[in-house]
Fold this protein.
Amino acid sequence: MTTDTKALPRITPDSAPFWDALRTRRLLLPYCLDCGLPHLPPGPVCPACFSGRLEWRAVSGRGRISTWTVVYKAWFPSFAADVPYNVVQVELDEGPRLTANVVGLPNERLAVGLAVEIDYDEQREGITLPRFRPAAA
Amino acid sequence: MTLSLRDQSAIVGIGHSAYGRFLPDSQLALGATALKAALDDAGLTRADIDGVAIHMGWPLGIDYDRVAEAYGLDVRWVCQTWLHGRFVTSAIQQAAMAVSCGLAEVVACVNAISFTRERQILGGPGDAEGTREDGGTHGESPPYGLTAPAGGVALGMQRYMARYGATSEQLAAVPMAFRKHAQKSPCAVMQKPMTLADHQASRMVVDPLRLFDCCLITDGAAVAIVTSAERARDLRQRPVYISGMQGLRSGRDEFIFAPRGLGINQQRDVPAGPDARDLLAYRMAGINRADVAGLYTYDAFSPLVLFVLERLGFCGPGEAAAWVQGGRIELGGELPMNTSGGLLSEAHVGGWNSILEIVRQLRGVAGERQIKNARHLQWATAWGDSVIFRN
């Protein structure tokens, strides 16, 4: 099962609109048409009210680092050259949190609460991975 | 109607294999050694076993059908949990319920793992769960390079530190305490003393977790035999009763490796102490938290020890890093924890090494580790499940 290429996300019928939109540099979230709340990860129903009436809407792409880590161990051969690299969770301004990497930020400056905005420059086999960079002042 | 399970079942036999690294035995062989020892301990024979509960089955460990086939058992009830350590309590609870309800009379709870042989599953390209739909069950997200349970704990602990000012130096009190316990435990893999300087010098694995915040990767097997209280009274050993229980919690406010309300994954960001569901085991056992003479937990990573203390209300949200200082969780302290060394220093036998230690303590045969006058001991995890044992 070893591979020298970085893993791709597993795209499901529930999450396909999320990944489709990223290809065109847009971040969409599933919003509930009944209670109005967005959620992640994309699911078949609204986890707040169990409604199945969902609508994908574009969101700001802005948020704050809610937690972070720096990986020192080369678990993946495909990430060995990147060690030590960051992984963060970003709380979007709209509420849901997303796991991703931050680019353009030295590891020493990682901090909970740091404002970030989305970056669409990482592409793997036709899939655009959402990443974040420090928000413009 | 509520069926009270208080004192309806008991652990009546315990056994284990050697614990070590790169042991030559297969997982099944380790399990056979442990089962034989447990049967001898209980004064039972193989033919008495009519149920098996397998904790940590495929794709890591052994499966119930192969266990029954290999050991020549003929059982009428089984349960099996997959892969993860988190299901220790689930296996004990299933066994306790089965013998209490008459679905089985004598259940062997079996954990047999060669982590050193199967370690590729613990992270990296062999982590199949991380790459399934929506990522892994500890927050793993391999497209971003996050893998292994340690990655999820790091996400939880980093935010905990930022919110409460907890430090790596404070966290060190946990592995240092359990190392002291391991030094009094003949089968513990790690016997060398650990100082604060040793902990701080251990390499960073996934910030803020250092190597010594991560449990051992070892091989070994442990078996606990559960039967009804009625049958237990006729057997060789003093019964260790299963007195109170509560289940594993799950939902959007839960992340396996963070206190409720910390704000990891989709948890709400509202620090809170234990709610009624976190304390049900005390009610079933008819005791208060203050009656617990020792606490045992799944210490795969040192932050999990802080989180279970807050889950149960031994201290408030954000207070555990300070609370564990000064020998409080060591033998002789206010609340001894993982007195045989836990996963951090005795061995990673899926947590069952600590279940066996609880039984030894409540039989009064823990030697220099003995907690004086131990009447109630609690097994509980950061994810909310628990079993309270009494003698």
